[in-house]
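2024-03-11 09:14:02 INFO queue: dequeued item Patatin, len=381
2024-03-11 09:14:02 INFO validating residues
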Amino acid sequence: MELSKVTLEIFSKLEHKWLSHCETTKKTRVLSIDGGGTTAIVAGAALIHLEDQIRLLTGDSHAQIVDFFDIVAGTGIGAILAAMITADDGSGRPLYTARDAVHLITQRNSELYKFKPAGVLRRRRRFSSRSMDNVLKQVFQRREDGNAKLLTLKDTCKPLLIPCFDLKSSAPFVFSRADASESPSFNFELWKVCRATSATPSLFKPFHFTSVDGKTSCSAVDGGLVMNNPTAAAVTHVLHNKRDFPSVNSVEDLLVLSLGNGASSGKISDNGECSTSTVVDIVVDGVSETIDQMLGNAFSWNRTDYVRIQALGSGRTREEVLKERGLESLAFGGKRLLKESNGERIHSFVQRLVASGKTSLPPSPCKDSPITPLISLSLAS
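2024-03-11 09:14:37 INFO prediction written
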């Protein structure tokens, strides 16, 4: 009888110690934003709601998304948003809030995706590369000592991961702050990185550019062709980057939020023929759904550690996106419709983020005072 009491006491203490360890162990937080489309309605709605909920639950009106995430990944228009909310203002703080980033993308959308005048012999309409270049250069620069400084991958306050496809090597090329910190040959200006991952073949010409030291060149097309959903790339990066994430040994050490960008509108004609744009849409959607299925299987032991926000209904406004019921991939295929809305799922996720506390921002090599982004100055004038 006494032995049973001792055994019970031992197991009770071990259980308490284990639970205590689980509660205090901080998981590495990953935010991933899909490419696809030009409006980013789904991702934009999710990002604004995410940051609003963080501020509401922390009581800090100045809290931002990167305060609670350790790495951010994005493709296409998702990459532009990812780079905006991680770009360093010069003091180690983000240059843009989520709301400011989404508002700017919405306000300047017609310039980012401006159609070139169609010529007499030109069958296919393309977007203006020059117009997008000009906007991205304005977005990713800040003023230092009275001069404009174009930001690079190193000028981010959290690790950033953005893919494209390099035609020169016929392989994916992933831009990362980790590589940029190692060598200037892998450091690229942020506007060029975002331009590269957005170069959809049917709408833009391939984008040719070099690293800041001119030693690495790339001929890029849309990263969405291979990694429209960059979540798997981000998870793999964290698992194998022991320098920046030494405590991560498996997916059990991760907390992942993946933001979709809605289903494409590409349709196959009645006779079964596909246009180039339709093929691209099919590839993009297929990549995203495949990655979601893979991550769903990897986190099947605890689905609360992996949350995917996607809108597949007729929602065309941010409010409709947040009200739409969430979908979750099932093990071995298929999906199930959840009771919770997208907005409610984000709220639940933020509760876990806030409970585990802020991440620690790295010391900034720049100035101590915030620097106003030049895009804000141009909009004000």
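2024-03-11 09:14:37 INFO annotate: The two ends are 83 Å apart (CA to CA).
2024-03-11 09:14:38 INFO item closed
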